[in-house]
Specification:
0% helix, four-stranded antiparallel β-sheet, 62% strand, mainly beta, seven-stranded mixed β-sheet
């Protein structure tokens, strides 16, 4: 069984910062791409940022220059540093990862989501 557990969400004022973490655990052989998605009220879930095992990153235009994604492969953890937060960043943030289990089965996993609320 594989789990992704997020932490670090909360309430922050506009212009502030938050750091999200997501740790993968369970019967894991390998993890390739990890990423963060968000779902804003009334909107579809969208990609915020992703990072490959080798460290190549990809960002949504709306967060470039403000958010930084990183990962610690030894800890099986991905991070999202969010700076200069805006009210429009308010959303439920979901961790996502492409994981191959110890049985050799690849699958795409989601975390349970963590709420980020930015007040104006």
């Amino acid at each position: 069984q594989v789990q992704l557990v997020e932490s670090g969400g909360g309430l922050v004022q506009a212009g502030g910062s938050l750091r999200l973490s997501c740790a993968a655990s369970g019967s894991i052989l390998s993890i390739s791409t990890m990423g963060w998605y968000r779902q804003r009220p009334g909107k579809q879930r969208e990609l915020v940022a992703s990072i490959t095992r080798g460290g190549s990153t990809n960002y949504a235009d709306s967060v470039k220059g403000r958010f930084t994604i990183s990962r610690d492969n030894a800890k099986r953890t991905v991070y999202l540093q969010m700076n200069s937060l805006k009210p429009e960043d308010t959303a439920v943030y979901y961790c996502n990862a492409d994981i191959v289990s110890l049985m050799g089965v690849p699958y795409n996993y989601w975390g349970q989501g963590t709420q980020v609320t930015v007040s104006s």
